[in-house]
Amino acid sequence: MKAFRFLHAADLHLDTPFSGMSGVPDRLRELLRESTFTAFERLIRLAIEEAVDFVVISGDIYDASDSSLRAQLRLREGWDKLGEHGIPVYLIRGNHDPLSGRRLRLALPDHVTQFGPKAESVIAVRRSDGEPVAVLTGASYPTPAVHENLAIQYRREPGSALYHIGLLHGNVDGQEGHDAYAPCSLRDLQASGYDYWALGHIHKRQILCDSPWVVYPGNIQGRSLKETGPKGCYLVEVAENGEAELSFRRLDQVLWLESGLAIDGLATEEALKVSVEERLDELREAEPDRITVVRLIFTGRGPLHGMLQSGPEAAELLQELRRKELGRFEAAGLGEGIVWPAGFKLETGMELDREGLLAEDSFLGELFRLGERTAAEPERVEELVGTALAPLADNRQLRRILQELNSEAKLELVRRAEELAATLLNEDTPSSREGRSVS
Question: Which residues, listed in sequence order, are joined to residue 344 by a DSSP beta bridge?
Answer without folding.
Answer: 296, 438
